[in-house]
Amino acid sequence: MPFCGSPPKPVQRKIVILGDGACGKTSLLNVFTRGYFPKVYEPTVFENYIHDIFIDGQQIQLSLWDTAGQEEFDKLRSLSYSDTHCIILCFSIDSPDSLENVKNKWVGEILEHCEGVKLILVALKADLRQSENANTNNGDDGADNLGGTSAYNNDGQLKKLVTYEEGVSVAKQIGALRYLECSAMKNRGVKEVFTEAARIALTARPGAASANGQPVADNSGSSSSCAIM
């Protein structure tokens, strides 16, 4: 029992960050917890971050689990799922394959190890849409009908970027409670990702029921690029 006048203990919540290797998960966590963007990519096996956040006056101590997305760590990664309150499922704007893997790989793994956990879907590297190399291609110039937004990579090759609408569509399909977009490099929308995850985690039991079956509401006009179920 706390002494009279002593502050209440923070609520503890566990959040696991999942997604393909090199999609930007560790950069997202570094910017949120340490305030810097790593310049060199170093694959993660496992790392745990502890960070306090306040939601509506309630102090929450977040245990943030960074996981490896590579296949060779599949069995080891399964150990991270126990007692999870919310999963931040990530993909990269410049990798449509990483969005496909959300449906084809990650959701199945979550169902196997942590069925019913609450999910949010997060698009990383959103700054690429506003970069000087980005352009809009409507498929009228014969460039393989990429459609939507595309950008040139360092080799001068045109590559398709995932659109906001495509992200929202996948969020609906997998039963995510939120869809958000952010840029760790520009530190835009990073805090909002973890604020929404913490808010959802507050209402969750570890590994307990999540998807309420309601569709994601398309809110593409929002400055925070957030769609809410």
UniProtKB/TrEMBL annotation:
Q: Name one GO molecular function term.
A: GTPase activity
Q: Which GO terms describe its cellular component?
A: cell division site; cellular bud; cytosol; plasma membrane
**Matching InterPro entries:** P-loop_NTPase (IPR027417), Small_GTP-bd (IPR005225), Small_GTPase (IPR001806), Small_GTPase_Rho (IPR003578)
Q: Set out the biological process GO terms recorded for this chain's protein.
A: establishment or maintenance of actin cytoskeleton polarity; microtubule cytoskeleton organization; positive regulation of exocytosis; positive regulation of formin-nucleated actin cable assembly; regulation of septum digestion after cytokinesis; small GTPase-mediated signal transduction
Subcellular location(s) of the protein: Cell membrane
SUPFAM superfamilies in alphabetical order: P-loop containing nucleoside triphosphate hydrolases
> Polar residues composition bias: which ranges?
211-229
The annotated topology with respect to the bilayer is: Lipid-anchor
Q: What is its main location?
A: membrane
Where do the segments described as Disordered lie? 209-229
Report keywords, A-Z: Cell membrane, GTP-binding, Lipoprotein, Membrane, Methylation, Nucleotide-binding, Prenylation
The family note in this entry says:
Belongs to the small GTPase superfamily. Rho family.
Q: What is this protein called?
A: GTP-binding protein RHO3
Native source species: Pichia membranifaciens NRRL Y-2026
